[in-house]
Specification:
Helix content is about 35%, strand content about 10%. By secondary structure, it is an alpha+beta fold. The strands form 2 sheets. A two-stranded antiparallel ribbon has the order 1-2. Zinc ion binds next to loops.
Length: about 160
């Protein structure tokens, strides 16, 4: 384990009664752990997954089995495609106000917190517009409008 990895795990709490290991540092407005690792910004649970299982494909999202957004226990995490993740969210009734997931529609409304997340990720060059659009379940057109600051909430 290198020094950075050690520092990372120091910011993760001991397992609680459900086995969840919560991120103790800064959280995003949507409740995910925020981390900067080797110069790029990502979420703590994604980092935890990568540190444990090795690099994952940029198209995959790291999903919580436990639904605790700040949880960094690798046993509670799995890498899935965004399609599976959204289907899971829908199944659990957590789709928020985003009704149209189809990339064709591109009318999916992102909650304000998500907007900032999209912009931050884009600014940090964490993915192409296409990859980010996919990750957030919106169209590339919509995403490009968001990052240009044209669109606030409506597609
Ligand atoms: Zn958990």
């Amino acid at each position: 384990m290198d020094r950075r990895e050690e520092l990372f795990w120091k910011k993760v709490a001991a397992p609680d009664e459900r086995g969840c290991r919560k991120w103790l540092n800064e959280l995003t407005s949507t409740g995910y752990g925020k981390v900067t690792y080797k110069g790029y910004r990502t979420t703590a649970h994604r980092m935890a997954y990568i540190l444990t299982n090795g690099p994952i494909h940029a198209d995959l999202v790291v999903m919580h089995d436990c639904d605790v957004r700040s949880c960094c226990n690798p046993d509670h995490l799995k890498a899935v495609t965004q399609k599976v993740n959204l289907a899971d969210m829908r199944a659990k009734g957590r789709a928020g106000d985003c009704r149209n997931f189809g990339e064709k529609h591109g009318r999916c409304k992102l909650p304000t917190g998500k907007l900032d997340e999209v912009k931050a990720k884009y600014a940090a060059k964490q993915g192409s517009q296409t990859a980010l659009a996919k990750e957030f379940g919106i169209s590339q057109t919509h995403l490009s409008r968001i990052v240009r600051g044209v669109s606030r909430v409506q597609g």
